[in-house]
Amino acid sequence: MSSIPSTAVLVVVGAGPRATGLLERIAANAPELWDEAGNLHIHLVDPHPPGPGRIWRHEQSALLRMNSMAEDVTMFTDESSTIEGPIRPGPSLAEWAAQFSGQSPRHAPHTEPADPEVLTELRTLAGTDFPTRRVQSAYLDWVFRRVLTELPPSVTVEWHRTTATAVTGPADGPQHVHLADRATPLTAHLVVLAQGHIGSTPTAEHRDHAAFALRHGRFHLPPEFSADADLSGLQPGEHVILRGFGLAFIDLMALLTEGRGGSFRPQADGTLTYLPSGREPVLHVGSRRGVPYHSKTRYRLQGPRPALPRHFGPEAVDALLAEGRPLDLRRDVWPLMAKEIGFGHYHELFHAHPERTALAWADFIAAYDRPGWYDDDMAALVAMAVPDPADRLDFEALDRPLDGLAFPTADAFQDHLRERIAQDVTRREDPEFSADLGAFLALLSVYGQLPRLVAAGRLTARSVAERLDGWWHGFFSFLASGPPGFRLRQLLALSRAGIVHFLGADVRIGTDESTGTFTAISPTVPGHTSHATALIEAYLPGPSLDRTEDPLLRGLHRTGALGEEVISDPTHTHRSGLLAVSPEDGRIVDPSLGGPHPRRIALGAPTNSRAVAAFARPRTNAPAFRQNDAVARALLRALRVTEAETATSPVDDRPLRV
């Protein structure tokens, strides 16, 4: 048996950015942790191309764009990364693109994208541009190909362009990954699930709306990824209610206007005019807040980068956990988070725009460090040191901008919201307000500290349900994950053209059997009801193991081989819909084993690690990069032992070979 070459085998289900990031960390850590005398074969299973995967595949509309500037996207670790493995810097999307205009040396392995439109975009792409998703697809494709060249010769990768349908095998033996296009499963020592964002079947409410649409010959679209949405059933001039005002709405807006032949004409005053094609539907949009996400900033910091974290870092989390009591996010944690975000905001304001402050920075920060965010002393300090209220950070006003407002007519509300959106775009593109970017960077820092707090299990069940997964996730997205400014200028043009109508906050959707129409009402415009023959749920599918469209996860869940995250305390039970994994190494919690499965790991969006983003802004110590590194090192250690054992003993009655 010892004369048969031994091979350790890893199957990674999913080949998108998260799987690519894991491979990059395997390549980085292999010189330390992998014995070159042994062989490691990695199977990637994904029907979509490795690197981009499903969400970032090239085959989607050229109208769809990222909501990040090109210089703010990277797949590589840097000096900010707090990881055990080696840091291996690499180019950001903007730095990689610069080679195609001759502004930088070529990055190996160099090939030009086959799509001439993508190549043209790359040649003119500036760091502050918001690229198309097709350009990001090309970047991710290159990252994957680079990673393959960085793996040692003893580590090989094979891509299976198909869907993994099941994983079977004993906890103490080989794992069998069943594929949709072949009868014989892949046999592996370890399996990693990295499917990324996964769709889900409709909820009961969505099924009711679909049944209503079917009865009356109407159109209904449940939550769906924009690139996959079939909008062909919407007729020109048809009135459509869209519930959701985030990035999914922005994508749908582009597909239903420019995507149907309309165009935007710039005006001398910087505004846009929409030239309709006549094929557009009429869009009525509302949400809980009733306003679109804040525009992304399009400037850089004007002052020095703030030293983050300061008020909500590892020491603050340690202190919270040391209290040994249940924690409520809004009561116990949010004041520290708010103070951290405030620090980022005021650090930039005082350093970049000192003429708008009334105190020296050293004096301000000495006083700022002492009180809590909601203490009277803090309010007095800010009022004294920051004379203009427009320069102060008011989270409550940001969070619910339409609270307490009611308009006599729908037209009056349209005028109000158009003015608000225009002001937001102007502010987010004017470096005089770069304090907003300081707050954004602190938001990212805060986001990176939360996974450890959640993993400790100290937050109450209701706090996780209503505050973390509910309020915080929405508030973070509202402030930090908005569209580029040009999209909101397009929204304004569409509103003026009568293609888009704003519904208001706390929108409620209903049905009218007598007219066969969907209805929408909002307290923002009391007494006003909008009717439409189509309803679109303009947001992404939420996590749900009960309703997941992924056959592998669905099968494991139904057989009790994986568990949903359930957080319980005497007052509440929260079922998050997320796959429960061990916080240390991402191993899947298997209820049948009473703990983590020794041979199955899961990463990314479907898991309760909540480290969702597969790529990141440079120099932000991204949580996903930290997790990828920890998991890659654990995998290599485990596979090294497995490979050594395979050389001398049979697995499943025979040596494991590829």
Quick tags:
six-stranded mixed sheet; alpha/beta; five-stranded parallel sheet; disordered C terminus; disordered N terminus; 658 residues
Helix content: 25-40%
Low-confidence stretches: 1-5, 647-658
What is the averaged pLDDT score? 94
Strand adjacency order, main sheet: 3-2-1-7-21-20
Structure class: alpha/beta
Q: Which outline best applies?
A: globular
Distance between the termini: 16 Å
Q: Count the strands?
A: 21
- Beta-strand fraction estimate: 15-25%
**Total count of helical runs of at least 4 residues:** 17
Sheet with most strands? 6 strands, mixed
Q: What does the radius of gyration come to?
A: 26 Å
Pfam families: NAD_binding_9
Domain FAD-dependent urate hydroxylase HpyO/Asp monooxygenase CreE-like FAD/NAD(P)-binding: 11-197
InterPro entries: HpyO/CreE_NAD-binding (IPR038732), L-asp_N-monooxygenase_NS-form (IPR052189)
Organism: Streptomyces prasinosporus
Set out the fold topology:
Layout: E1 7-13, H1 17-33, E2 39-45, H2 93-97, H3 116-124, H4 133-150, E3 155-160, E4 164-168, E5 175-179, E6 186-188, E7 190-193, H5 204-216, E8 219-221, E9 239-243, H6 247-256, E10 263-266, E11 272-275, E12 282-286, H7 314-322, H8 329-352, H9 361-368, H10 376-385, H11 395-399, H12 410-428, H13 435-455, H14 461-480, H15 485-496, E13 500-504, E14 508-512, E15 517-521, E16 529-532, E17 534-537, H16 551-558, E18 564-569, E19 572-579, E20 587-590, E21 595-602, H17 623-646
Helix pairs in contact: 1-4, 1-17, 8-13, 12-15, 13-14
